[in-house]
Amino acid sequence: YDSQGNFKQTHCMLRDITDARKVEMQERELDDKIQHAQKLESLGVLAGGIAHDFNNLLQVMTGSLTMAAREIPKDAPVNRRIDAAMRAVERGASLSSQLLAFSRRQPLQPRSIDLCDLLTDIDDIIRSALGEGMEVELDAVEALWPAYVDAASTQNAVLNLLINARDAMEGRGKLKIAIANRHFGPEDLLGEPDMVTGDYVEVKVIDNGPGIPAETLPKVFDPFFTTKPVGKGTGLGLSTVYGFARQSGGRVTINSRPGVGTSVVLLLPRAQSAAEPVRWHDPSDIAGGTETVLLVEDDAEVRDATAALLSDLGYQVRTAEDPTAALKTARQDPEFDLLVSDVVMPGELSSRDMAETLQAERPDLPILFISGYSRDSIVRDGKVDAGVQFLAKPFTKDALAIKVRDALSSVQATAPEQAEDISDRPCHVLLCEDDALIRLDLADILDGLGTEVTETASGQETLDKLQTGHYDALLIDVGLPDMSGEEVATRVRQQHPNMPIIFATGQANVPAAETLGHCAVVQKPFGDRDLARALARLGILSHADAASGF
Ligand SMILES: Nc1ncnc2c1ncn2[C@@H]1O[C@H](COP(=O)(O)OP(=O)(O)OP(=O)(O)O)[C@@H](O)[C@H]1O
Ligand SMILES: [Mg+2]
Fold first, then answer.
1. Each residue of 241-284: pLDDT tens digit?
2. What is the 3-class SS of 218-258, one letter each residue?
3. For the chain: N or C, fewer Cβ within 10 A?
4. Beta-strand pair 251-257/261-269
5. Is Mitochondrion among the key words of this record (predicted)?
6. Residues in the 5 Å CB sphere of ion ligand 2
7. For the CA of 235, the nearest atom of ligand 1
8. How many whole angstroms from 190 Cα to the centroid of ligand 1?
9. Exposed e or buried b for every residue in 378-416, given b needs 16+ CB within 10 A?
10. What is the distance between the alpha carbons of residues 43 and 365, in angstroms, rounded to a whole number?
11. Ligand nearest to the Cα of 262, by number
């Protein structure tokens, strides 16, 4: 207004807040994502705990029911009751294995697998699971990368997705499975703290069902969330897929447009080695034997039930109630062929230490661990150490029979080779250290210990060397110029599941040493003896050699 009070002009200020809003929205999305992940995390802890205790109870029931059935004449009416109880145990077992899968604690045995072959392999299972009204199109890219996954769990996950799609389409229509190679850089993985950049194999299940309403979408991975009528769905399908994907080092995401359809994307890590053929057990594999088994289990009922199953299969059984007692009986009479042991037991000596002690005395001794819980010292990061057999509770007699035979025959198959390894040629260590002086020093020490040494100065050089040469062990610095020693080791482990790896580090801890299994850490500064001890611990040198080296 001017001095007379007449209107003159308006001042107007405009500020473009689009960018600020975008950032705000992105932050909110990220927050939601993190909160969602945290919620699933704590639910997982709870679910895993329950499943563990539940499995021990079920184990006692399976064993007792199997033995009860044997003591009763086949035509006795009470057999029907036993059958019904057995079926209930089976349902309980499948429920608890789903809970373990969700809590990322199911024992996985990943190997390099061609996912297209894997799914083609179970074509008939898919067809009968989906019913006649469904058509499935499997579409895989040429030169598909192999994935590093557990075969049975992968199939189970994909079946879950297919059955969800079928249910959404009410049993009629066409759905598609598309398998492709994917590379992820850092910008693709924003808000995915657990994923590493790199190569993945993607399995996408696409349906054109009714889709999922926006308000339901955030809940679909929650355990027991279902929109299906009582008795139709447990709501554990997607939860197990979620746990499986994350435990395998991948992820699962779901996109849905109401009225258009749903696609679920399962990302699984790429394997570094060529795909191996998948081996399934057929019923003729179920055989007993006459070897002697040392069974270590603290729970008297589980012990009796398992011992009874083993004797029933023809084995001679000796039992011990804890690791200390097991060592004692093993030393009194070393004539046994297999150690079968529970993982978590009371007492000062852990079952892992007991097993290591026994294996140090008898390197060819096969070991089968049994547990209701995979997150024990035997299973690191949900993966069973190479060379160790693992059986999850509750198990059936057939499952026990297969694992026991597997464990016994794995040694028969590998023992002569190992013997030759030790006697015929010196152990060959690949040494990776970027500091030339330290490398020289370490090569000297290794030389003094009677090993052959090949030196490298970077992560890439190490990986290249491993592609072409044969080495018995890797000694690697954690801080390397091109990539961390842990990353190198992780890649090496995928191709060489049994290779002993020693990390040399100045860091307080090396997480990869825990998760990869068959690793040792020597803290800088370390001396000759420290290195010798680490080599001995991993079975590269005998304890005597390590001690006499100096
Ligand atoms: N392809 C899909 N289309 C539409 N809705 C889906 C789809 N997949 C999952 N859902 C929704 O997510 C819910 C949870 O799925 P989830 O597989 O976890 O459990 P469920 O299928 O209900 O039961 P279960 O798998 O244990 O038999 C389903 O009940 C359904 O509402
Ligand atoms: Mg389902």
1. 999 999 999 999 999 999 999 999 999 999 988 888 776 655 55
2. HHCCCCCCCCCCCCCCCCCHHHHHHHHHHHCCCEEEEEEEC
3. N
4. antiparallel
5. no
6. 164, 237
7. 19
8. 27
9. bbbbbbbbebbbbbbbbbbbeebbbbbbebbeebeeeee
10. 39
11. 1
Token pair 């789903």: residue:
98
The closest of 461, 453, 435 to 524, measured between CA atoms, is 435
Closest ligand, as measured to the CA of 216: 1
Q: Output the residue whose Cα is nearest ligand 1's atom 20.
A: 235
Distance CA 368, CA 404 (A): 7
Tell me if 51 sits within 8 A of 103, measured CB to CB.
yes
Alpha-helical (H) ranges within 367-435 are 397-424
Three-state secondary structure string covering 95-134? HHHHHHHHCCCCCECCEEECHHHHHHHCHHHHHHHHCCCE
Residues with CB under 6 A from ligand 1: 160, 164-165, 168, 207, 209, 212, 220, 225-228, 233-239, 262
Amino acid letter for position 386: A
> Hey, what are 65's tokens?
């029911």
Instruction: Give me ligand 1 centre to Cα 89, in Å.
Output: 25
pLDDT digits (tens, 9 = 90+) for 476-494: 988 888 999 999 999 998 8
Distance CA 305, CA 250 (A): 38
Q: Residue 549 and residue 183: Cα distance in Å, rounded? A: 47
User: What residue's CA is closest to ligand 1, atom 29?
Assistant: 226
